[in-house]
Write a structure and sequence with these properties.
This protein is mainly alpha-helical and about 80 residues long. The protein contains two helices and two strands. A two-stranded antiparallel ribbon has the order 1-2. α1 runs antiparallel to α2. The longest helix has about 35 residues. The radius of gyration is 21 Å and the shape is rod-shaped. The two termini are about 30 Å apart.
Length: about 80
């Protein structure tokens, strides 16, 4: 594995053009990426909430939906 330096069998490696990664490092990388995505989503949600608070009193739901779309709303799974 190019990340941890482990010497597992080829069956336990994900092989790429420039690097090989073991299943354990792959799982850890996914956990780190998922946490980062969660942090980014929370930041975006706070920004969307701020936008809504600024416009909710004086706009209708179609305008709010438009703001959400413009802010890059996307379903996070």
């Amino acid at each position: 594995c190019n990340f941890c330096g482990g010497s597992g069998s080829k069956d336990n490696l994900i092989q790429g053009k420039a690097a090989n990664i073991c299943f354990e490092c792959s799982d850890l990388a996914k956990e780190i990426a998922d946490e980062k995505r969660k942090e980014l989503a929370e930041k975006e949600i706070k920004e969307i909430a701020r936008l809504i608070e600024g416009y909710a009193v004086k706009t209708d739901s179609a305008d709010i939906a438009s703001l959400l779309h413009q802010a890059g709303y996307r379903k996070v799974e």
